[in-house]
Amino acid sequence: MKASARQGWLLLLPALVMLVALFYLPQLLMFVVSLGRRSAYGTVVQDVSAGNYARAFEPLYLMVLGRSLVLATATTVLCLLIGYPVAWWLARRVAPKWRNALLVLVILPFWTSFLVRMYAWIVLLRSDGVVNAGLVAIGLPQVELLYNDFAVLLGQVYGELPFMMIPLYLSLEKLDPGLLEAAADLGAGFRESFRRVVVPQTMPGIVAGCVLVFIPSLGAYLAPDLLGGGRTAYIGNLIQSQFVVARDMPFGAALSFVLSLVVGLLLLLLRRSLQSAQSV
């Protein structure tokens, strides 16, 4: 092996060690636990069986997984629709001297615990909260805003929006203005320029933002638990309840492994679709 190749592997070694220790080994342990069964005392009995996986694919649990996929998709789409115009405004319309200050406002929520922010939404949305108090003050009836799917989606979009905006902003900031000027010189309007120039050039940011939003949203359990009141089951809450409440760790591990496989399959399909689009 050449010295440069050895040096490259040595530089890569810390990342490989972390990947194996923090991802592959936990996945392997989770798979081993998923093959066992729960004892009468809530411990794991290592009987090699696929019964937990057969149970995970029952219609009830597939419906929960489908509901989680819908939530993750809706969160991703809304974050993209909200984040793209804001990122465009920050990157192309705001004066450079103000951009850093506004970017700090974008990442400011990360300085506070996500749990605290969810409780803040509870204060805003509850029946005697700020929003309903404002509605009553202007003569409108109260609206049930908490403990439903709307509240869950609102909390997810609020929590994940910065993860969409940052990659979009970085892609839009690097966009060459000369490309837009060339498109305008060729007679393209804003819509045509946006569709044929801006979107393809910022596709890496779009993909990165969608991945960063979709994956955490698929396994979300805090917003559904607090803002949804636990009334609707999502896959993250189901897994958490199997480990903490039901003490059925093998089934919880099987659900977690199935969720990991679903995420991996979706990422593989995304990669192939991007490769097909680039080859056209």
UniProtKB/TrEMBL annotation:
Source species of the chain:
Luteitalea pratensis
PANTHER family assigned: INNER MEMBRANE ABC TRANSPORTER PERMEASE PROTEIN YDCU-RELATED (PTHR42929:SF1), INNER MEMBRANE ABC TRANSPORTER PERMEASE PROTEIN YDCU-RELATED-RELATED (PTHR42929)
Among InterPro entries, the record links this protein to:
MetI-like, MetI-like_sf
* Membrane topology category: Multi-pass membrane protein
UniProt-listed SUPFAM superfamilies: MetI-like
Task: Tell me where in this chain the ABC transmembrane type-1 domain is found.
Answer: 65-270
- What keywords is this UniProt entry annotated with? Cell membrane, Membrane, Transmembrane, Transmembrane helix, Transport
Instruction: Kindly name one Pfam family recorded for this protein.
Output: BPD_transp_1
Q: What is this protein called?
A: Spermidine/putrescine transport system permease protein PotB
| Chief site of localization | membrane
One CC-aspect GO term: plasma membrane
Q: Which domain of life is it from?
A: Bacteria
| Keyword Secreted carried by entry | no
- One GO BP annotation of this record: transmembrane transport
TM spans (from-to): 9-33, 69-90, 102-122, 150-170, 205-223, 251-270
- Which locations, inside or outside the cell, does it occupy? Cell membrane
Keyword Calcium among UniProt keywords: no
Q: Which family does it belong to?
A: Belongs to the binding-protein-dependent transport system permease family. CysTW subfamily.
